[in-house]
Amino acid sequence: MEKSSVNNNQKVAKPANHRATSYDVARLAGVSQSAVSRCFKAGASVSAKTRAKVMKAADELGYQPNAIARGLITRRSNIVAVITTEFTNLNYPEMMSHLNAKLSEHGVHILLFTVGAASDMRAVLDQIWQYQVDGIIAASQFSDDQIAQCRKRGIPLVFYNRVFSDSSISSVGCDHFEGAKLLVEHLLSRGHKRFAVYSGPNDSAVAQERLQGAVTQLKQAGAHFDVYQGDYTYDSAAASTVEMMSSARELPQAVICANDIMAIGCIDTLRAKFGLRIPEDLSVVGFDGIAASKWQAYDLTTIVQPLERMVEATVSMLMERIEDSSIPAEKRQFGGKLNIGLSA
Amino acid sequence: MEKSSVNNNQKVAKPANHRATSYDVARLAGVSQSAVSRCFKAGASVSAKTRAKVMKAADELGYQPNAIARGLITRRSNIVAVITTEFTNLNYPEMMSHLNAKLSEHGVHILLFTVGAASDMRAVLDQIWQYQVDGIIAASQFSDDQIAQCRKRGIPLVFYNRVFSDSSISSVGCDHFEGAKLLVEHLLSRGHKRFAVYSGPNDSAVAQERLQGAVTQLKQAGAHFDVYQGDYTYDSAAASTVEMMSSARELPQAVICANDIMAIGCIDTLRAKFGLRIPEDLSVVGFDGIAASKWQAYDLTTIVQPLERMVEATVSMLMERIEDSSIPAEKRQFGGKLNIGLSA
DNA sequence: CTGAAAGCGCTTACAG
DNA sequence: CTGAAAGCGCTTACAG
C-alpha cells in the first residue's frame, strides 16, 4: 500500500517480475480488458485497429492468456488425463507422441498418470477430479465402481487396449482374438501340428482374448497343444521354455506367445540353452509388433497393432464425447496386420 | 433469474449434474465457505466439530476442491511440464513411472509434451506459458533464446540427460565421458588393440561426450581405431557394420557403440550377414542399460544409467527451485555402472 | 476458531 | 465494435 504513493493514478505498481495479465495489456493498448480478451478468442468481433493495438501491447509484455483462469470460467480445462501402467511395452514413446500430436490438433493437453499397484488408482482418480480434466484416456484397468464415478461426474472415458464386456463403455483396441487366429492359421498352413501356447497374465482380458483366439483355432484344426502360464515378461517365457523342454515328451513344432517380448524370451532360451535353431527346429510367433520384433536376431512373425490408427480413433472418440456427452458408448476394434518374419 | 422464484431462499437451483463447490458443501454443513476451504488445507485451524460436519457433507456431495481455481489464487498450479522427444529410447515407461511417483510425493502433476521437429518447440512453449506450470523438466534440446524465456518468466527449468556448457543451466545427467572411458578401459584390459567406434548423432551433445570419452581413452592407450557415423538407431549401426566389414583391411577386435540399440544392431548384423560370433570373433559394447541389453541374445557389456537416482535428483532439484527461485543453477552427474555381459 | 469480503485472471451476456 | 460488470471456485488477510 505504501508503494502506491509513488504512482497514484494507477491501482498498485505491479512487481517487475509479474506475469502480464489482460489488464496490463489493456492499459498499455489503451482499450478495455474485454477487448483484450476478445482478441485472444477465435471468431470474436474486434476491429482491425483495436486488434493491432492489443497485439502490439501483448507482444511487448509477453502476454499469453492464462489457461487456468480461462478454464475456470469456461469449465473446459482442455486437459485430458492419460493413465498408463509402468508395464506398457507397446512402443510407448511412439504412442505418446501420436497421442500428443492428435490431441494438440484439438488444443488439448495431456496430464499423465502412471499407475503401478491397483491401490494407486484411487489416489490417481482423486487427483483427476481435482484437476477438472475434460476427459480420460485409460490404458489401465478400472473397477466397475471407478467407471461409475466417471459417469456420475460426467467425464468421458475411453479405454485404450482394454477389454470390457459392458457395452456402455467406450474402448479402442486391436482384435486380439482374430489376430491370434490369424497366427495359428498361418502356422497350420505351414504344416505345423503340435503347438505350445504361452499365455499372458490371467488378470489381463487382452491376454485372455489372445489365448482364446489361439485355442479356438487350434481346437478347430484338431491340433495338439499345451498351454504354459506366463505374464507377458521375457523371464516368464524363458521359464516356460525350460519347463516345456524338460517335460514335453515330443517337442512342439511351434510356440505361440502372448506377446512379442515373450516370443523373444522364448527364442533366446531355445537358442542359448538348448541349441535349437529358429525357425528350422521350431517356429515361434508373437503379438504386438514392437520395434524389437523387427531386429534381425528375431524377425518375428507377429500381429502388428495399428498404433497410429488406434490412437487416432481414441482421440476422436474422446473428443466427440467431450463436445457432446449424450453420444452413446462405442467400441472400435482394429484388425492387426499379420507380419510374416523368419521366426516361423 | 426467473428460476429463483422456485426456491427463493437459495441463490439459484444448481443443475443436478453440477460438480459440488465449496459453497454447496458449506450450505449442507451449515458453515461458511471459508470454513470448508480451511478443512481442505493442511495445517489450517478448524475445530474438530466443524471439520466433522464439513467432511460428512463433502463426502455426501462427492466434493473435491477445484485445483484449477486454487491454482489461480495461489499462483501454484502444482503442474510441471515434462518435455520429451519421440526418440527417447531409455526405458521410457519406467522413467515416466519414477517421475510420476517422485513428483506425486510433492503433490505435483505432469503435463506431458512430446516434441518431434525443432519447430514444434515454439508451439509447445507457448502452451506451457499458458498453463502456468510451476516448472519444466526437459529431456529435449532448447535454444539459448528459449532458455532465456524461461528465466525471464521465472519458471525453473531442469534438463534431463542434456548437456549445456553454460553453468547457469541446471541439469541432471550421467557421466557419459567417464562411462565411455570405463568401457574402453575394460576392453583394453581384455587385450583388445584395434577398435571401431560407432558415433551417435552429431547434434547430440550426449553422443559427442560419449564419443570424446572413448576417443580420449583410445588415444591415450595408443590404440588404433576408426569412427563410423551413426544416429543412435539400429539401422544406422547395421549400415555402419556393413561399411566396416567391406572397407576395413583388418577387422577391429571391438566395436564401441554410442548406445545399446546400436550395439544390438551391430551384433545382429555381424551375426546374420557375416556369420561372426560375439564375443569370440569380435567384442561389442553399448551404453544405457536398456531392458533389451540383458536379453540372452545380446547380454551387453554396457554402462547402465542409474535411472531412478537421476529421476530423483531431477525432481528434487526442480522442487527446490520452485520453492525458492533464488537457488543458483546446479549440475549433477551420476556415474554409470559398468555392467559386464558376454558381448565383450 | 469462525465468517464476511476481496481478489486471482479470465469470459461473456448486456447495453450502448 | 466496445466497455462496464458479474461471476467461475477457490484462498487468505482481517476482524470478531
TrEMBL record, chains A, B:
Query: Keywords of this protein's UniProt record, alphabetized?
Result: DNA-binding, Transcription, Transcription regulation
Asked if Transcription regulation is a keyword of the record, the answer is yes
Q: Which GO terms describe its molecular function?
A: DNA-binding transcription factor activity; transcription cis-regulatory region binding
Domain HTH lacI-type stretches = 20-74
| Regions that span the bilayer | none
- Record's protein name: LacI family transcriptional regulator
Look up and give the organism this protein is from. Umboniibacter marinipuniceus
